[in-house]
Protein backbone atom coordinates (compact mmCIF):
# COMPACT_ATOMS: atom_id res chain seq x y z
CA UNK A 1 0.00 0.00 0.00
CA UNK A 2 1.38 3.41 -0.93
CA UNK A 3 0.90 6.61 1.01
CA UNK A 4 -1.46 7.80 -1.71
CA UNK A 5 -3.55 4.62 -1.40
CA UNK A 6 -4.02 5.25 2.32
CA UNK A 7 -5.03 8.89 1.91
CA UNK A 8 -8.70 9.84 2.11
CA UNK A 9 -9.51 11.41 -1.25
CA UNK A 10 -13.18 12.29 -0.71
CA UNK A 11 -13.77 14.34 2.42
CA UNK A 12 -17.33 15.25 3.39
CA UNK A 13 -18.11 18.88 2.70
CA UNK A 14 -21.16 19.28 4.93
CA UNK A 15 -20.36 21.87 7.59
CA UNK A 16 -22.40 22.28 10.76
CA UNK A 17 -25.26 24.76 10.63
CA UNK A 18 -24.54 28.18 12.09
CA UNK A 19 -27.89 27.92 13.86
CA UNK A 20 -29.53 24.70 15.07
CA UNK A 21 -31.72 23.01 12.47
CA UNK A 22 -35.42 23.32 13.35
CA UNK A 23 -38.72 22.11 11.93
CA UNK A 24 -41.40 23.15 14.44
CA UNK A 25 -43.07 26.27 13.13
CA UNK A 26 -40.98 26.21 9.98
CA UNK A 27 -41.93 23.03 8.09
CA UNK A 28 -45.25 21.39 7.16
CA UNK A 29 -46.04 18.67 9.69
CA UNK A 30 -45.90 15.01 8.81
CA UNK A 31 -49.40 13.81 9.68
CA UNK A 32 -48.17 10.29 10.47
CA UNK A 33 -44.81 10.89 12.14
CA UNK A 34 -45.44 13.96 14.30
CA UNK A 35 -48.39 12.47 16.26
CA UNK A 36 -46.30 9.34 16.77
CA UNK A 37 -43.49 11.46 18.18
CA UNK A 38 -45.99 13.21 20.45
CA UNK A 39 -47.29 9.94 21.88
CA UNK A 40 -43.72 8.79 22.50
CA UNK A 41 -42.93 12.09 24.24
CA UNK A 42 -45.95 11.76 26.53
CA UNK A 43 -44.89 8.22 27.41
CA UNK A 44 -41.31 9.37 27.89
CA UNK A 45 -42.23 12.17 30.27
CA UNK A 46 -44.37 9.82 32.38
CA UNK A 47 -41.63 7.19 32.33
CA UNK A 48 -39.15 9.73 33.68
CA UNK A 49 -41.41 10.93 36.48
CA UNK A 50 -42.31 7.37 37.49
CA UNK A 51 -38.69 6.20 37.51
CA UNK A 52 -37.72 9.23 39.60
CA UNK A 53 -40.47 8.42 42.11
CA UNK A 54 -39.37 4.77 42.30
CA UNK A 55 -35.85 5.95 43.08
CA UNK A 56 -37.12 8.02 46.00
CA UNK A 57 -38.96 4.94 47.22
CA UNK A 58 -35.75 2.90 47.15
CA UNK A 59 -36.79 0.71 44.24
CA UNK A 60 -33.91 1.99 42.11
CA UNK A 61 -30.40 2.62 43.37
CA UNK A 62 -30.04 5.69 41.20
CA UNK A 63 -31.82 7.27 38.24
CA UNK A 64 -30.31 9.72 35.76
CA UNK A 65 -33.44 11.47 34.49
CA UNK A 66 -33.77 12.59 30.88
CA UNK A 67 -36.63 14.99 31.63
CA UNK A 68 -36.36 17.91 29.23
CA UNK A 69 -34.36 16.03 26.64
CA UNK A 70 -36.91 13.34 25.78
CA UNK A 71 -37.14 14.60 22.20
CA UNK A 72 -33.59 13.45 21.53
CA UNK A 73 -34.23 9.98 22.87
CA UNK A 74 -37.61 9.21 21.31
CA UNK A 75 -36.57 10.66 17.95
CA UNK A 76 -33.37 8.63 18.03
CA UNK A 77 -35.18 5.38 18.74
CA UNK A 78 -37.86 5.98 16.10
CA UNK A 79 -35.27 6.89 13.46
CA UNK A 80 -33.62 3.47 13.72
CA UNK A 81 -34.49 0.67 11.35
CA UNK A 82 -35.38 -2.79 12.68
CA UNK A 83 -31.90 -4.19 11.95
CA UNK A 84 -29.99 -1.17 13.26
CA UNK A 85 -28.21 -1.13 16.60
CA UNK A 86 -28.49 1.34 19.48
CA UNK A 87 -25.56 1.96 21.83
CA UNK A 88 -26.91 3.92 24.82
CA UNK A 89 -25.34 5.58 27.83
CA UNK A 90 -26.73 5.34 31.35
CA UNK A 91 -29.08 8.32 30.74
CA UNK A 92 -30.61 6.78 27.63
CA UNK A 93 -33.01 4.24 29.12
CA UNK A 94 -35.90 6.11 27.51
CA UNK A 95 -34.37 5.55 24.06
CA UNK A 96 -34.19 1.83 24.85
CA UNK A 97 -37.82 1.77 26.05
CA UNK A 98 -38.98 3.64 22.94
CA UNK A 99 -37.15 1.09 20.82
CA UNK A 100 -39.27 -1.62 22.45
CA UNK A 101 -37.39 -2.72 25.55
CA UNK A 102 -39.68 -3.37 28.56
CA UNK A 103 -39.24 -0.48 31.02
CA UNK A 104 -38.30 -2.73 33.94
CA UNK A 105 -35.64 -4.42 31.82
CA UNK A 106 -34.21 -1.04 30.82
CA UNK A 107 -33.83 -0.18 34.50
CA UNK A 108 -32.16 -3.45 35.50
CA UNK A 109 -28.69 -1.94 35.70
CA UNK A 110 -29.91 1.03 37.75
CA UNK A 111 -31.75 -1.35 40.05
CA UNK A 112 -28.62 -3.36 40.73
CA UNK A 113 -29.76 -6.55 39.00
CA UNK A 114 -27.08 -8.86 37.65
CA UNK A 115 -25.85 -8.52 34.08
CA UNK A 116 -27.71 -6.23 31.70
CA UNK A 117 -31.32 -7.10 32.41
CA UNK A 118 -32.04 -7.94 28.76
CA UNK A 119 -30.64 -9.75 25.75
CA UNK A 120 -28.77 -7.19 23.64
CA UNK A 121 -28.93 -9.34 20.51
CA UNK A 122 -32.69 -9.86 20.74
CA UNK A 123 -33.37 -6.14 21.00
CA UNK A 124 -30.32 -4.86 19.08
CA UNK A 125 -29.58 -2.58 22.01
CA UNK A 126 -26.10 -2.74 23.52
CA UNK A 127 -25.81 -2.86 27.33
CA UNK A 128 -26.33 0.48 29.04
CA UNK A 129 -22.95 2.10 29.56
CA UNK A 130 -22.07 3.94 32.78
CA UNK A 131 -18.40 4.88 32.10
CA UNK A 132 -18.47 7.93 29.85
CA UNK A 133 -18.16 7.27 26.11
CA UNK A 134 -16.77 3.73 26.38
CA UNK A 135 -19.72 2.44 24.35
CA UNK A 136 -18.69 4.47 21.30
CA UNK A 137 -15.62 2.45 20.23
CA UNK A 138 -17.79 -0.66 20.59
CA UNK A 139 -20.42 0.97 18.39
CA UNK A 140 -17.78 1.65 15.75
CA UNK A 141 -16.51 -1.92 15.98
CA UNK A 142 -19.96 -3.38 15.37
CA UNK A 143 -20.60 -0.95 12.53
CA UNK A 144 -17.26 -1.76 10.91
CA UNK A 145 -17.92 -5.50 11.20
CA UNK A 146 -21.35 -5.04 9.59
CA UNK A 147 -19.76 -3.14 6.72
CA UNK A 148 -17.14 -5.85 6.17
CA UNK A 149 -19.88 -8.50 6.08
CA UNK A 150 -22.05 -6.48 3.75
CA UNK A 151 -24.90 -6.21 6.24
CA UNK A 152 -27.43 -3.42 5.73
CA UNK A 153 -26.98 -2.14 9.27
CA UNK A 154 -26.43 1.30 10.76
CA UNK A 155 -25.39 1.97 14.35
CA UNK A 156 -26.41 4.89 16.54
CA UNK A 157 -24.22 5.80 19.51
CA UNK A 158 -25.62 8.14 22.15
CA UNK A 159 -23.44 10.28 24.41
CA UNK A 160 -23.69 13.44 26.48
CA UNK A 161 -21.57 16.57 26.18
CA UNK A 162 -19.46 15.39 29.13
CA UNK A 163 -18.58 12.24 27.21
CA UNK A 164 -17.03 14.30 24.40
CA UNK A 165 -14.19 15.19 26.79
CA UNK A 166 -13.18 11.54 27.06
CA UNK A 167 -10.54 9.86 24.93
CA UNK A 168 -12.94 7.12 23.86
CA UNK A 169 -15.07 9.72 22.07
CA UNK A 170 -12.15 10.94 19.96
CA UNK A 171 -10.83 7.45 19.25
CA UNK A 172 -14.29 6.31 18.14
CA UNK A 173 -14.73 9.23 15.74
CA UNK A 174 -11.29 8.77 14.28
CA UNK A 175 -11.70 5.05 13.65
CA UNK A 176 -15.21 5.57 12.28
CA UNK A 177 -14.03 8.13 9.76
CA UNK A 178 -10.97 6.17 8.66
CA UNK A 179 -13.01 2.99 8.20
CA UNK A 180 -16.07 4.84 6.85
CA UNK A 181 -18.08 2.84 9.34
CA UNK A 182 -21.91 3.08 9.12
CA UNK A 183 -22.29 4.76 12.50
CA UNK A 184 -23.96 7.97 13.68
CA UNK A 185 -22.91 9.73 16.88
CA UNK A 186 -25.62 11.71 18.66
CA UNK A 187 -24.31 14.11 21.29
CA UNK A 188 -27.10 15.25 23.61
CA UNK A 189 -25.59 18.55 24.70
CA UNK A 190 -27.61 19.24 27.83
CA UNK A 191 -25.30 21.99 29.03
CA UNK A 192 -23.69 20.32 32.01
CA UNK A 193 -21.29 17.44 32.64
CA UNK A 194 -22.56 16.99 36.20
CA UNK A 195 -21.43 20.43 37.50
CA UNK A 196 -19.04 21.34 34.66
CA UNK A 197 -20.51 23.68 32.01
CA UNK A 198 -19.76 23.18 28.34
CA UNK A 199 -17.61 26.34 28.24
CA UNK A 200 -15.09 24.60 30.49
CA UNK A 201 -14.96 21.54 28.25
CA UNK A 202 -14.35 22.99 24.80
CA UNK A 203 -13.55 26.26 23.04
CA UNK A 204 -14.94 25.05 19.70
CA UNK A 205 -17.90 26.96 18.17
CA UNK A 206 -19.96 23.80 18.70
CA UNK A 207 -19.38 20.14 19.36
CA UNK A 208 -20.62 19.50 15.82
CA UNK A 209 -17.62 21.44 14.50
CA UNK A 210 -15.33 18.73 15.86
CA UNK A 211 -16.55 16.46 13.07
CA UNK A 212 -14.55 18.35 10.47
CA UNK A 213 -11.26 17.47 12.14
CA UNK A 214 -12.05 13.79 11.75
CA UNK A 215 -13.28 14.00 8.17
CA UNK A 216 -17.02 13.51 8.63
CA UNK A 217 -20.08 15.76 8.41
CA UNK A 218 -21.26 17.57 11.51
CA UNK A 219 -24.90 18.55 12.08
CA UNK A 220 -26.30 20.95 14.68
CA UNK A 221 -29.95 20.48 15.60
CA UNK A 222 -32.45 21.83 18.12
CA UNK A 223 -32.62 18.93 20.53
CA UNK A 224 -36.03 20.03 21.86
CA UNK A 225 -37.57 19.86 18.38
CA UNK A 226 -38.48 16.18 18.03
CA UNK A 227 -39.28 16.27 14.28
CA UNK A 228 -36.00 18.06 13.57
CA UNK A 229 -33.95 15.52 15.52
CA UNK A 230 -35.74 12.67 13.76
CA UNK A 231 -35.15 14.25 10.34
CA UNK A 232 -31.43 14.82 10.88
CA UNK A 233 -30.84 11.36 12.34
CA UNK A 234 -32.84 9.65 9.58
CA UNK A 235 -30.72 11.39 6.94
CA UNK A 236 -27.50 10.44 8.74
CA UNK A 237 -28.54 6.81 9.22
CA UNK A 238 -29.62 6.50 5.59
CA UNK A 239 -26.29 7.95 4.53
CA UNK A 240 -24.44 5.47 6.74
CA UNK A 241 -26.31 2.47 5.31
CA UNK A 242 -25.60 3.69 1.77
CA UNK A 243 -21.85 3.63 2.43
CA UNK A 244 -21.42 7.34 3.08
CA UNK A 245 -19.68 6.86 6.40
CA UNK A 246 -20.25 8.36 9.83
CA UNK A 247 -21.91 11.59 10.94
CA UNK A 248 -21.61 13.57 14.16
CA UNK A 249 -24.89 15.15 15.30
CA UNK A 250 -25.06 17.62 18.16
CA UNK A 251 -28.51 18.17 19.66
CA UNK A 252 -28.88 21.26 21.86
CA UNK A 253 -31.11 20.37 24.78
CA UNK A 254 -31.20 20.70 28.57
CA UNK A 255 -31.19 18.45 31.61
CA UNK A 256 -34.04 19.93 33.66
CA UNK A 257 -33.59 17.60 36.62
CA UNK A 258 -30.39 17.07 38.55
CA UNK A 259 -27.63 14.87 37.15
CA UNK A 260 -29.03 12.01 39.25
CA UNK A 261 -31.05 11.79 42.43
CA UNK A 262 -27.71 11.94 44.29
CA UNK A 263 -26.87 15.38 42.83
CA UNK A 264 -27.80 18.87 44.08
CA UNK A 265 -28.00 20.93 40.89
CA UNK A 266 -28.81 24.14 42.81
CA UNK A 267 -25.15 24.33 43.81
CA UNK A 268 -23.96 25.07 40.28
CA UNK A 269 -26.88 26.50 38.24
CA UNK A 270 -29.55 29.06 38.98
CA UNK A 271 -33.32 28.87 38.78
CA UNK A 272 -33.53 31.42 35.97
CA UNK A 273 -31.55 29.16 33.65
CA UNK A 274 -33.79 26.20 34.38
CA UNK A 275 -36.91 28.32 33.91
CA UNK A 276 -35.69 29.55 30.53
CA UNK A 277 -35.25 26.00 29.31
CA UNK A 278 -38.59 24.87 30.73
CA UNK A 279 -40.14 27.40 28.37
CA UNK A 280 -38.58 25.38 25.50
CA UNK A 281 -39.95 22.06 26.79
CA UNK A 282 -40.16 19.67 23.81
CA UNK A 283 -43.53 18.19 24.79
CA UNK A 284 -45.72 21.34 24.84
CA UNK A 285 -43.82 22.70 21.82
CA UNK A 286 -44.85 19.73 19.72
CA UNK A 287 -48.36 19.66 21.19
CA UNK A 288 -48.95 23.31 20.29
CA UNK A 289 -47.82 22.72 16.73
CA UNK A 290 -49.99 19.64 16.31
CA UNK A 291 -53.06 21.45 17.63
CA UNK A 292 -52.36 24.44 15.40
CA UNK A 293 -52.51 22.16 12.37
CA UNK A 294 -55.50 20.17 13.60
CA UNK A 295 -53.46 16.99 14.05
CA UNK A 296 -54.18 16.52 17.76
CA UNK A 297 -57.63 16.34 19.32
CA UNK A 298 -58.52 16.30 23.01
CA UNK A 299 -59.46 12.64 22.67
CA UNK A 300 -56.12 11.78 21.10
CA UNK A 301 -54.22 13.67 23.80
CA UNK A 302 -56.19 11.84 26.50
CA UNK A 303 -55.47 8.52 24.81
CA UNK A 304 -51.75 9.31 24.86
CA UNK A 305 -51.92 10.14 28.57
CA UNK A 306 -53.84 6.93 29.29
CA UNK A 307 -51.23 4.92 27.43
CA UNK A 308 -48.51 6.62 29.46
CA UNK A 309 -50.32 5.84 32.71
CA UNK A 310 -50.53 2.21 31.68
CA UNK A 311 -46.77 2.18 31.16
CA UNK A 312 -46.23 3.76 34.60
CA UNK A 313 -48.55 1.25 36.29
CA UNK A 314 -46.71 -1.64 34.68
CA UNK A 315 -43.38 -0.24 35.80
CA UNK A 316 -44.62 0.15 39.38
CA UNK A 317 -45.87 -3.42 39.40
CA UNK A 318 -42.63 -4.78 37.94
CA UNK A 319 -40.43 -2.98 40.46
CA UNK A 320 -42.81 -3.39 43.37
CA UNK A 321 -41.30 -6.71 44.43
CA UNK A 322 -37.74 -7.84 44.87
CA UNK A 323 -36.34 -10.02 42.09
CA UNK A 324 -35.52 -13.67 42.93
CA UNK A 325 -31.85 -14.01 43.74
CA UNK A 326 -29.59 -17.01 43.19
CA UNK A 327 -26.31 -16.35 45.06
CA UNK A 328 -24.53 -19.12 43.15
CA UNK A 329 -24.90 -17.00 40.02
CA UNK A 330 -22.00 -14.95 41.36
CA UNK A 331 -19.75 -17.67 39.99
CA UNK A 332 -21.54 -18.26 36.70
CA UNK A 333 -20.57 -16.58 33.41
CA UNK A 334 -17.32 -15.17 34.83
CA UNK A 335 -15.21 -17.28 32.50
CA UNK A 336 -16.18 -19.57 29.63
CA UNK A 337 -14.21 -22.27 31.47
CA UNK A 338 -14.11 -21.68 35.24
CA UNK A 339 -10.61 -21.28 36.63
CA UNK A 340 -9.36 -23.42 39.55
CA UNK A 341 -9.57 -20.36 41.79
CA UNK A 342 -13.20 -19.74 40.79
CA UNK A 343 -14.06 -23.39 41.41
CA UNK A 344 -12.46 -23.19 44.83
CA UNK A 345 -14.39 -20.04 45.70
CA UNK A 346 -17.66 -21.54 44.51
CA UNK A 347 -17.09 -24.72 46.52
CA UNK A 348 -16.28 -22.70 49.63
CA UNK A 349 -19.40 -20.64 49.17
CA UNK A 350 -21.52 -23.72 48.71
CA UNK A 351 -22.47 -22.78 45.18
CA UNK A 352 -20.21 -25.15 43.29
CA UNK A 353 -22.85 -25.82 40.65
CA UNK A 354 -22.77 -22.20 39.58
CA UNK A 355 -19.07 -22.25 38.93
CA UNK A 356 -18.76 -25.64 37.28
CA UNK A 357 -19.57 -26.35 33.64
Q: Descriptors for this entry?
A:
15 helices, disordered N terminus, 357 residues, globular, alpha/beta, disordered C terminus, 2 domains, Rossmann fold, two-stranded antiparallel ribbon
Question: What's the layout of helices and strands?
Answer:
Elements: H1 33-56, H2 70-79, E1 85-87, H3 93-98, H4 103-106, H5 108-111, H6 120-123, H7 135-149, E2 155-160, H8 167-179, E3 183-189, E4 192-193, E5 196-197, H9 210-214, E6 218-222, H10 226-241, E7 247-252, H11 271-278, H12 282-292, H13 298-319, H14 340-349, H15 352-355
Helix pairs in contact: 1-2, 1-12, 1-13, 2-10, 7-8
Question: Outline of this structure?
Answer:
With 357 residues, this protein is an alpha/beta fold.
Structure, described:
It comes from Streptomyces johnsoniae. This is Pyruvate dehydrogenase (Acetyl-transferring) E1 component subunit alpha. The protein is of the alpha/beta class. The protein has two domains: 33-325, Rossmann fold; 326-357, no CATH class. The protein is 44% helix and 9% strand. The chain has 15 helices and seven strands. It has helices at residues 33-56, 70-79, 93-98, 103-106, 108-111, 120-123, 135-149, 167-179, 210-214, 226-241, 271-278, 282-292, 298-319, 340-349, 352-355; strands at 85-87, 155-160, 183-189, 192-193, 196-197, 218-222, 247-252. A five-stranded parallel sheet has the order 1-2-3-7-6, sandwiched between helices. Strand 4 and strand 5 form a beta hairpin. Helix 2 (70-79) packs parallel to helix 10 (226-241). The longest helix is centred in the first third of the chain and has 24 residues, at 33-56. It is globular, with a radius of gyration of 21 Å. 43% of the residues are buried. Mean pLDDT is 92; it is low at 1-9 and 351-357.
